[in-house]
Amino acid sequence: MIINSLLGNFTVVSSLKNHDKLCIKSNRKEVLMRMFDEKRINNYESADYNYSIEICKQEFAHTMIILIKEVNYPDFVQEMSELETAGNQVMA
Of 21, 32, 55, 77, which is least surrounded by CB within 10 A? Predict the structure, then answer.
């Protein structure tokens, strides 16, 4: 599963170590840090992803509920564009 959100983009797959858990992967550590404690984030040796976290399915379901409740925009692409523009103005 690939999830694109205002917090960032990440991939969700079954954990190789424990099929009762999920592995959330991202190229950017800060994407995972927006949702999870930094101490839980691991370096992930892959050509596609640099960081990962293993999480139980119930905890991830709770995380998704929070993300869904925060949706308050009618156009995702426009919202992302506005956030990027605002971020670039702060950095300037």
Answer: 77
